[in-house]
Amino acid sequence: MTFHSYFQSDITEAVMAQKQLQKAMDLLADEKLRTNVLLQRQHELIACLSKIDNAVSSSEKAQFGKVYKGTWRGSTVAMKVMAMSDKMSDSEKRERMALMETAISSSLSHPSIIQTYTFSMKPIMISTRSGSQMSSGSPATSSGDLHILKDFSGFEVQVVLLDEYCDLGSLRSRLDLFSGMQYKQMLKTVLELGSEVARGMVHLHSLNILHSDLKAVNILLQNNPSKPCGFIAKVSDFGLSVKMDLAMTHISDLSIGTLTHMAPEVILNGHQSKASDV
């Protein structure tokens, strides 16, 4: 090969490398733009938390906190307020952070799953060795990272979730009312609600998420005149939920849930799977 050929080959390779570099730079620029848009949206949503009005105490209680009925952007919402201390046990932290991670996930947008509109996490106080306490001026954060508590060591963290409001309460609170229905009407209602819960669970499982605590008290009902029974069912309360890796078919040695609703393999071996979840 002549010197000219070598020189031409080097130029060609340099041009190709330049094109590949430019392509990579363009991809990074696009990714940065998308990230900035998402961050801006999160900041706007969190700012809206300060605009909640007409918040009143509700008789309903969340698994890990208190629930208030309020108005946000003209819509009725359920405002869940939870406090997380760095003095909590590891299991308590995991349960609360699992709730946060699942609740804020955009992938959980489904008609049969409770929708979370926005959330806020804010350190509200810090305890010193002398026993005194002082307020924290740290800004709120909006992360679903399971390890975010490490950033708030020494703080008590207030978590606020804004969820869609289910005006009819839990399925457990309504079960006694079904006994007054005629058999055919009750059967239609049971089948309709069962299919809605099943669709919600199918969506969760398609994302490799295990609910781990499915029961009547964790299924909320919302008024819907277009339905034959007059309401719809939505799966809620993801405090014990677990995210599996794509290659996983089950999780071992994880005995969590409500004892009366746990599958035998979960009680005996801690074998959590999509099958045991329902």
From TrEMBL:
Gene3D superfamilies: Phosphorylase Kinase, domain 1 (3.30.200.20), Transferase(Phosphotransferase) domain 1 (1.10.510.10). It comes from the Eukaryota. Residues 53-278 form the Protein kinase domain. InterPro entries: Kinase-like_dom_sf, Prot_kinase_dom, Ser/Thr_kinase_AS, Ser/Thr_Kinases-Pseudokinases. GO terms for molecular function: ATP binding; protein serine/threonine kinase activity. PANTHER family: PROTEIN KINASE DOMAIN-CONTAINING PROTEIN, SERINE/THREONINE-PROTEIN KINASE TNNI3K-RELATED. This is Protein kinase domain-containing protein. It comes from Chlamydomonas eustigma. The lineage of its organism: Eukaryota, Viridiplantae, Chlorophyta, core chlorophytes, Chlorophyceae.
